[in-house]
Amino acid sequence: MKTAPAPEGARHQTQTQYSNATAGGYTERLNSIRAALLEAGIEPANPDALLSRLADAEGKPVRFGTASKPRSKNGWLIAYHDRGLPFVVIAGDWSTGAETKWVAGTGDTLSPAERRELKRRVAEAKQVREEEQARQWEARAAAAARQWHTCSQADPLHPYLQRKGIQPHRARQQGAELVLLLTDFSGKGWSLQTIDEAGNKRLMAGGKKAGHFIVVDGPDYPARVLICEGWATGCTLAEIDPAALVLAAVDCGNLQAVATGARNCWPDADLIVCGDDDRQTPGNPGATAARAAALAAGARFALPEWPPAAPLHLSDFNDLYQWQKGAR
Predict the structure, then answer these.
(1) In this predicted structure, what is the pLDDT of residue 19?
(2) What does each C-alpha distance from 322 to 3, 131, 218 come to in angstroms?
(3) What does the alpha-carbon distance between residue 126 and residue 130 come to, in Å, rounded to a whole number?
(4) Taking phi first (over 0 means left), then psi (-120 to 50 degrees means alpha), and beta for anything else, what does residue 270 get?
(5) CA-CA distance, 23 to 89, in Å (whole number)?
(6) For residue 236, what pLDDT band results from cuts at 50, 70 and 90?
């Protein structure tokens, strides 16, 4: 393992779009709202159908499918109207974390009373959407628990395990798919990840991932905690260091939340963020996120130590293990 300093990570922020369509009609405002959604990375599967439902979204969220996940209804939108025209629209995509706030007119055209009313409506919309999101997450957590308890122990001869050269550890299986439980630090399950025989991974639609993780293996009261991205990488780490507790954060964007949560849970543990070394990707997102997570959590940071002959497409600890095994 090798260490390196950690830069600060970037945070996603909600965009606010101010439209100059105040003097225009209903169609102009709809076109402005449509453009604001797309600019924020929120692409409804059927934009016309969504915009025709703005009246239904008055003060409460309307759910909709997105172009990338048309059946999941991870998109949400709340609208407020003034004299029959949309005045404020707040929308987002729970699957990506994208959010935007569209406001008709500019701040210069609003009176002090209108600004106070706008602030009140935005705060009200925030509370409504957070309550709706919490209800969705709880419903998916219950579904994840039900499915998890119907699964059997994973077959050590599962093709994905054989290809990765790893043991199943705490994984379960349903049909041909491996099933992995995402939990919080209290042990409550929130979502599932499945892996089929070809290695295709899928997260439960609508499940809560942020700050949650897969417990790969290890003791309940650890002296050392290893945090990585993928579950297969975590299995390799658990087999290299069976005394450590290994947590898989699923992806690099979730590393910091899991690492800081682990530090709060085990303040005296030796915490190591084991990053993917995405050497062929501009900016090396795996290493960059791992450094930032380690810095935020007061942890150590590690990347695979590549021998000179190691191919550049290798990126994680499982890749290194598999290549070294084949090179012997």
Answers:
(1) 53
(2) 22, 45, 22
(3) 6
(4) beta
(5) 17
(6) very high
3-state SS class at 170: coil
**How far, in Å, are 155, 179, 236, 328 from residue 201 at the CA level?**
17, 10, 18, 30
The pLDDT tens digits of the residues spanning 152-210 come to 999 999 999 999 999 999 999 999 999 999 999 999 999 999 999 999 999 998 899 99
Q: Which residues contact 217 (CB under 8 A, 6 or more apart)?
A: 169, 170, 234, 235, 238, 242, 245, 246
Q: What is the mean pLDDT of residues 263-281?
A: 96
Q: For residue 57, what are the CA distances in angstroms to 30, 67, 81, 132? A: 14, 20, 10, 13
Cβ atoms of 265 and 231 within 8 Å: the answer is no
**CA 280 to chain CA centroid, nearest Å:** 23
308: left (phi over 0), alpha (psi -120 to 50) or beta: alpha
Alpha helices for the chain (secondary structure H):
26-39, 47-51, 112-150, 159-164, 231-240, 255-265, 285-297, 317-327
pLDDT of residue 108: 55
Domain spans in the chain, listed from the N-terminal domain onward: 15-141, 153-327
- Which of the four pLDDT bands, split at 50, 70 and 90, describes residue 87? confident
What residues pair up with 195 in beta bridges, in sequence order?
A: 178, 201
- pLDDT tens digits, one per residue of 37-60: 999 999 999 999 999 999 888 888
Strands 270-274 and 224-228: parallel
The residue to which tokens 């939108």 are assigned: 77
Query: Distance between CA 274 and CA 234 in Å, rounded?
Result: 9
Contacts of 290 (CB under 8 A, 6+ apart): 6, 252, 255, 273, 274, 275, 276, 301, 303
CB of 225 closer than 8 Å to CB of 178: no
